Amino acid sequence: MAVRIRISVEEAKRAVQESVDEARRVLDELDSAREQLIRLSREVIRESGRAIVEIHKGDRGRAVEHMERCEAATRELLGLAARYPQLLYSGLVNNAVSEYVEAKLFLSVVLEGRLPGYRELAGLGIPLVPYLQGLGDLVGELKRLSLELVREGLYEDAWRLLEVAEAVYLELQSLDYPDPLIPGVRRKADIARRVVDDLKAMLVDLSKRDELARLLRRSLGEEDVTSR
User: Fold this and answer.
1) 165 and 110 in contact (C-beta within 8 Å)?
2) Count of other CB atoms within 10 angstroms of residue 101
3) Residues 36 and 120 in one domain
4) What pTM, to 2 d.p., does this model score?
5) Which residue has better confidence, 156 or 89?
6) Which of 120, 130, 147, 129 is nearest to 56 (CA)?
7) 157 CB contacts (<8 Å, ≥6 apart)?
8) DSSP 90
9) 228 and 135 in one domain?
10) What is the reported pLDDT for 205?
């Protein structure tokens, strides 16, 4: 027996139109929020990068200024994203906030001699995943600073940074969770491992060369004294 179709075509059309109009309103709002997030994310990335550059250049004052602007933009970005769950956990937000975290951790290491933990940054509204991502990215900046310290002959400080970088890598590597839970973190841990291995090899080589040069200078100095 055939089923009789009793639906009113006019009512169906009206329901579809109302639903699509509502969807359009929601999507227009989301699209507007997304455009604002893109602008803010660019500002966060720009200011965090400038803060790191100024630290490497030795201008701590300018580094702090850029970090303050970065933090203000990050707070605004997270505040906006919190109103839209579809955007809060997107790659757009995570990528920008991880850049903030990287700069925040790096400046804290250099200026304050400490590494802020997740609980401290969570108090500022930083989600877990971008914290872990930024922590992984920190290893590259520690390597760069370590090599700068070597050029200044500060081997002890360079080795100290290597130990911090290695601790970051080992802890990130221990996070045995699927990528959907911690997107990008495993890849950053793999990159950190290569960075740490390269840095350790370079420091060992440079330390040996420096020790050999000191021994040669000492030997030549003793020979000069003997010849007199």
Assistant:
1) no
2) 27
3) yes
4) 0.84
5) 156
6) 147
7) 146, 149
8) S
9) yes
10) 84
